[in-house]
Amino acid sequence: MWDYRRYAIYFAPEPGPLAEFGAAWLGWDPATGKEVAHPDVAALPRPVAELTETPRKYGFHGTIKPPFRLAGGQSAQALHAAAQALCARLAPVALEGLGLSRLGAFLALTPKGDTGALAALAAETVRALDRFRAPPSEAEIARRNPARLSPAQRALLEKWGYPYVLGEFRFHLTLTGRLERGEAGAVEAALGPVVAPLLPAPFRVDNLCLFGEAEDGRFHLLHRYALSG
Fold first, then answer.
1. CA angle, 91 as apex, 75 and 1 as ends, to 5°?
2. Number of structural domains, the chain?
3. Residue 139: what pLDDT?
4. How far apart are the first and last CA of the chain?
5. Which of 25, 27, 32, 36 has the greatest CB tally within 10 Å of its CB?
6. How far apart are CA 78 and CA 57, in angstroms?
7. CATH code for position 102
8. What's the Cα-to-Cα distance from 220 to each of 21, 136, 202, rounded to whole Å?
9. Predicted confidence (pLDDT) per residue in 194-221, tens digit
10. d(C-alpha 42, C-alpha 117), whole Å
11. 163 lies in a domain?
């Protein structure tokens, strides 16, 4: 359970129709560690496997604390214990629901209504577990293309190792990689009726998960923690 390249804290739907769809749509189930056959969705501009190639390795999830390498002197077992203790004192969050949205050049499920409590939950998780995070390497920073980031995002990258946390955080469950011009509308139209019956209302975040990245780059769900504060 403990020998992984990187770790992350994600939200992942509990077993059920939404989790099953997410695993099939992306083609990877991080809970079982197995590939899953893609669904047959009509009227897509490209095969599902191509549309989902980029997010596939992460599994269906919403990022809370982004992937990180362990800091020197820290262990995955200690991270697990700290995450478990953190979640025991954090309260669940309830939102109005989830909806299919365009975020820049990709599609995702995003929460409806006031997301302040969810942002606060994510911020506390980022801060509380940051002692386990090794500083990003120069190559990792370069991959974020800091020249294209805003000053606030560059500051977050330097301090927290990722530009989209705290004030720049926006919770989402990614469904596609970058779409070509004109594709987003077609994918949204094809996917909308498929996901609509699966979207929870209200949408509750009542647990978080520890994920680990294996040597092949695929992420695995290692442990689920109830938010019981």
1. 25
2. 1
3. 86
4. 26
5. 25
6. 25
7. 3.90.1140.10
8. 17, 21, 27
9. 999 999 999 999 999 999 999 999 999 9
10. 37
11. yes
* H or E element, residue 210: strand 207-213
- Asked if residue 94 belongs to a domain, the reply is yes
- Across 88-119, b (16+ Cβ under 10 Å) vs e yields eebeebebeebbbbeeeebbbbbbeeebeebb
Nearest to 160, CA basis, from 169, 170, 173, 147: 169
**DSSP letter (8 states) at residue 41:** -
Cβ atoms 52, 27 nearer than 8 A: yes
Q: For residue 96, is it within any domain?
A: yes
Nearest to 127 by CA among 96, 162, 99, 154: 162
pLDDT for 1: 60
Structure confidence at residue 190 (pLDDT): 97
Place of tokens 């949205």: 101
- What would the two tokens of residue 128 be? 């509380």
| 36 pLDDT higher than 90 | yes
Each residue of 113-147: pLDDT tens digit?
999 999 999 999 999 999 999 998 888 888 888 88
Q: What is the DSSP letter of 202?
A: S
Q: What is the pLDDT of residues 146-186, one digit of tens each?
A: 889 999 999 999 999 999 999 999 999 999 999 998 899 99
